[in-house]
Amino acid sequence: MKKPILSALAALILAAYGGLVQQASAQNAQQPDMSQYILTPKPADTPRINGARIFGVRPGSEFLYTIPATGLRPMTFAAEGLPKGLKLDPKTGRITGRVATPGKYVVHLKASNALGDYERDLRIVVGDRIALTPPMGWNSWNCWGQSVTQERVLSSARAMVEKGLVNHGWSYINIDDGWQSRRGRNGAIQPNDKFPDMEALSKEIHGMGLKLGIYSSPWVGTYAGHIGSYADNAEGTYDWIEAGKYDEHYCIDDPEGKVSAGTNYRHGSHSFVEADVRQWGAWGIDYLKYDWNPNDYYHVREMYDALRSLDRDVVFSLSNAAPYADAPLWMEFSNCWRTTFDIRDTWENMSRIGFSQDRWLAFNRPGSWADPDMLVVGELGWGEHLHYTKLTADEQYTHISLWSLLAAPLLIGCDMARMDDFTISLLTNDEVIDVNQDPLGLQAFPIWQNGDQVIYVKHLEDGAMAVGFFNRGWQEVKMGISLGQLGLRGEQTVRDLWRQQDLTRTNDRFETRVAPHGVVLVKFYPGNSRQR
What does pTM read for this prediction? Predict the structure, then answer.
């Protein structure tokens, strides 16, 4: 969604930008200047509490919630109505402890600095379900691939704090494939020398008010050639490791891929799931990406039951390309399930994935989220050599807008330490994030479509409606919708969510121009009253 331009110039600008990206890639992540495309206003210096308005925890589980708030520091926090067992650090805004009694608690939060105060309610739901809004965080794979290290993970965690993303609700730092060595005396997978102290890593990340995730597979081996949570031998040994066919990081030495695909991409005879889960609990893991294909009920349920045995809540994310016929199972026994194979940073790939999620709408709900994979903005590379995303500015706005409307998990895939201002602006727009984190938890639906033009609508808890006008074609177009099509009553204000400004008031119809591969994301408010 660029600033208004003539349609005749749009293709030229897109082509020039594409060439700039290719040049940047050849120079190994020399970033293009994207500042002219920034739409998100900078946060005010006065306090503002952001992020989800609801948070789920199971009775007795360890609790960690960092109040996300923008504004000048120092800032102090207060919370009225915390359930018994929880306490707030007024300097950091972190709520910790354990709650034994199930129930719904409305906590009144307050953030204060020298310029003023901001107050907002947070609903803490102590019950059987967690992840009541889509998880927001970072994953190492799209950036570092197998070259992930403890220091690179810490770098991303520090960047999440230093660049202010933690103040907008981002919280998970997830290690993907590449951390594993062999099994220890306790039967659990131990980290390789790229992760010298997993317990210290977890402690430092939790000390920032963030959470830590990890990766495994119910196969004998993972996609990247490390051991999984199963083995052929009761001792938890692996023939290829015993034969010395591995590198210095315990990755299988199999340049042609024959051993991995033919021998390790399968389920073994002996499960070490319980041992692995106990180890993750001891380290303080908060998120698990469990990766194989096809996903099946037995191995999903086994891991689900093992994770539930811990005294902490672990978001359980399935990967990849979960079979659609089993959607009711994924909804019941996982918090997220990948609907596709791995995403790539091209318009063809991202748009194909993003605009093919409608069939999952019936199964998306608080606690269970269809996952169209990670965000491909910023610097990516799946290894040592990074490049700036190949998506144009308009395509990136489409990417973030669509994932927000879909109520999809938001997992950043770039090198967070090198995020430019444009990428930060994409990821810190609180009005767009509010669409993704709305407590109602509904997935948007395409209410109108004509060729390359499609309009997605998402119902919000307060009665308002988020509407995305998407242009998948190569020419600028004019798009519009009437209040009658939306079923809205009375006069409505139309608000541009990326620019965070009201555009117009109408009791009839709203029209806008949409750039090639672009989006106009608005909210119609106040919507229809939710009062009964």
Answer: 0.93
